[in-house]
């Protein structure tokens, strides 16, 4: 199945490195990041999972739970986690799904047959508290993901969800944001007391509301 932004995230119950997990129960009312990696005991994946573990506090600050997935077994995941902890100087404490029958990978469109008939590509999904898909990024196996970008998109999505703003190109935390076009200019002062700049009637900038 091909998944698109706004689609309901397909729920699943699966064996993981931390026992059986139901996706929706695991995420609760918060945000989620589900990402697939091509295979255990591979170099780029080792650095990616290490980086994710190192960013534990950053994901927690954003009320976001993380889980990884590959088509390897629970035993393989557990052995590999020891290597990740040792070599990346971290404690992997998020679950890695063991999708040995590739059911989840197929449903989530993580296997791209022209890239590999059996392994998952580097797919990454951000799932909102409403369990819809907010972001899909696909990287090739040879390129490790940019997890700062994942955090940046989470920040942007949460600003949109909680403050009616969007974020301009190359926006970084702390920079001005864009007032939603749904808000009339006369309503801006009450909603955005830090003020705003009207570049064009459709492009109004305001300081980041939650800073
Ligand atoms: C890696 O993680 O290094 C990797 C995995 C599959 C294919 C290529 C690279």
Automatic annotation (TrEMBL):
Gene3D superfamilies: Antioxidant, Horf6, Chain A, domain2, Glutaredoxin. Coiled coil: none annotated. This is Peroxiredoxin. SUPFAM superfamilies: Thioredoxin-like. It comes from the Bacteria. InterPro entries: AhpC/TSA, Peroxiredoxin_AhpC-typ, Peroxiredoxin_C, PRX_1cys, Thioredoxin-like_sf, Thioredoxin_domain. It comes from Mucilaginibacter panaciglaebae. Belongs to the peroxiredoxin family. Prx6 subfamily. Belongs to the peroxiredoxin family. AhpC/Prx1 subfamily. Transmembrane segments: none annotated. Keywords: Antioxidant, Oxidoreductase, Peroxidase, Redox-active center. Residues 3-159 form the Thioredoxin domain. The keyword Lipoprotein does not apply.
